[in-house]
Amino acid sequence: MFQLSHDYPQTDPGVCPNAVCTWLANPNVSFSGEPGIKQAEWNSDWAEYMGQLLAYIREGQDLQLDNKVGWKVNVGNTPRWFHMPWMAYDPKSGREFVHGLTNERTAEISDFLGEPSTAPRGQKKLSRTDMIKLEALGQKTLPLTPKMTREFMGQNPLPLTATTQTSKGFETWAFGVYNPWGAYAIGQTWNPDGTPRINANPNTGIGPQPAGLPFPSGTLVAKLLFTTATPAEVPYLEGSPVWQADRHVETEKGFLCQRQVQEVRLVQLDVAVVDSRSPTRWVYGTFAYNGKLKGETVWDRLVPVGVQWGNDPWSSPATSKADSQPIVQSVLNKSIGTPQHFGCNNRLAGPVDNKLSSCIACHANAYTPPSGVAQSKTNLPIIFGFAGQCTTQAPENADYFINNQFPMPYSNAQYPNLMNMDTSLQLMVAFLQFGQFNQAGAPLACSNPE
Ligand code: HEC
Fold first, then answer.
1. What is the pLDDT of residues 180-194, one digit of tens each?
2. How far is ligand 1, taken at its centre, from the CA of residue 226, in Å?
3. How much is the average pLDDT of 295-306?
4. Which of 324, 329, 340, 387 has the largest count of CB atoms under 10 Å?
5. How do strand 102-107 and strand 170-178 relate by DSSP bridges?
């Protein structure tokens, strides 16, 4: 049964030593803040940076991430991982009791399998020699050949329009964990009784902000995402750890409020770190699970998909197509071995993320109304999809694909007095749930689909 890890460090952990935060000392990566240069190509330096993050995350964890073991919050005898409070309050998507997973975006079959008939956007045709080389390394090459398409889609390929999972899609359930540097900021923001600590910031001219922010250098947040899809539907989920989750019961009408312990499988591992070399201070990266790889442990079957450190606010759709500069703040691994899935215009997004978004677009919009105020229909910008998202030069796109640095106020004056969450959407959820509790004394009721 899940237990919240909330003994947040109460003293400043100081500078993270290079031997611990190895990625911060990696001299071979650089994070551009300038438009007009060439987009970095995926290479062994990026793979190494992602490998350093993964080594820190997996340290001391079960090699197969067994359901019974779950996530260990201690590494050795030292507390390594901490959770965000207030994320169990919402009865619909709030934490379930087995592993503390919360309900996230529902994915479609095409999110997993791509569109096999067309080469993914930005995909260069590989030479025959490159293909042989990559295959020798155990990596499948893209674009998909008919044989690979069969392999990804199983012996009985699912037609992409009529899928077996009905119109409801596949639920995603996930949990996030903060290392001691991130947890120090959380502990400075939430009192032990669950009330927030707010810094009035009288000297900056910017309104009140959570007292523990910004997250200090050394912060690493990992998030593991599980799907209800099975290897029969998505063959590269083969061998993925099967976890129990108290998730929604499904009927023809959709997902009910009622929950039941059912199986979910690991599909994606997200990570975010504060690295002061990044112009936004943040670096986001993601791994995709690929059961077709030979690796013996689950950790060896996680393939880095890319790294992002900004939203390229000088590129479409934040600008017009005519003014758009090439993307320079994402680097994408274009031969990951599973169908590709990037975000808006070659920015980074993960396998079960919205293709019209990007990691940092969604996260740069982590703002809340003043502390103690619940979410209303009008007091927050929309982050989960709006008309014209990524496709038109709508003003919403210019607001959305921003580079945010704490404590920057929200760019659109339509939403005054928002608090900046320093990209943490979990902190945003926590403040919104606290606001709901504070104003209504009860969570929003869950209602079943009509
Ligand atoms: C469309 C919105 C959206 C996109 C795109 C998105 N996320 Fe998130 N992410 C969320 C939400 C909402 C949460 C908080 C809810 C939760 O964790 O249960 C979250 C939480 C996280 C967390 C936990 C810490 C935090 O900031 O709250 C990490 C780490 C993370 N995401 C990384 C990523 C990475 C890496 C990508 C891209 C590969 C990504 N996210 C793309 C919406 C998004």
1. 999 999 999 999 999
2. 13
3. 96
4. 329
5. antiparallel
Q: Report the distance separating Cα 137 and Cα 129, nearest Å.
A: 13
pLDDT band at 338 (very low <50, low <70, confident <90, very high): confident
Where in the chain are the domains?
Answer: 22-353
Protein residue closest via CA to atom 36 of ligand 1: 359
* pLDDT at residue 217, rounded to an integer: 98
Ligand 1 within 6 A of CB of 223: yes
Q: Is the pTM of this model over 0.70?
A: yes
Spatial separation of the C-alpha atoms in residues 242 and 64, rounded to whole Å = 10
- In this predicted structure, what is the pLDDT of residue 206? 83
Q: What's at 83, amino acid-wise?
A: H
Q: Assess whether the C-beta atom of 288 lies below 6 angstroms from ligand 1.
A: no
Cα 201-203-206 angle, rounded to 5 deg: 55
Q: Does 365 sit in the ligand 1 pocket, CB within 6 Å?
A: no
Q: Where are the beta strands (DSSP E) in 145-281?
A: 170-178, 198-199, 209-210, 220-227, 242-251, 254-274
Confidence (pLDDT) at 164: 36
Mean pLDDT within 429-442: 98
Exposure class string for 179-204: b at 16+ Cβ within 10 A, else e:
bbbbbbbbbbbbeeeeebebeeeeee
Instruction: Tell the residue nearest (CA) to atom 22 of ligand 1.
Output: 223
In contact, 261 and 67? CB cutoff 8 Å: no
Q: The tokens of 433 are what?
A: 């749930």
pLDDT at 33 over 90: no
Q: Cβ(84)–Cβ(194) under 8 Å?
A: no
The residue whose CA is least distant from atom 15 of ligand 1 is: 426
* Ligand 1 neighbourhood includes 219 CB (under 6 angstroms): no
Q: Give the pLDDT confidence of 371-427 residue by residue, as tens digits.
A: 999 999 999 988 888 889 999 888 899 999 999 999 999 988 889 899 999 999 999
Report how far residue 347's alpha carbon sits from residue 160's, in angstroms, rounded to the nearest whole number.
24
359 CA to middle of ligand 1, Å? 7
CA angle, residues 297, 56, 425, in degrees to nearest 5 = 105
Output the CA 128–ligand 1 centroid distance in Å: 37
**Cβ of 426 less than 6 Å from ligand 1:** yes
Write the CB contacts of 339 (distance below 8 Å, at least 6 apart in sequence): 112, 113, 114, 116, 120, 142, 144, 152
User: Which runs of consecutive H residues, i.e. helices, occur in 267-332?
Assistant: none
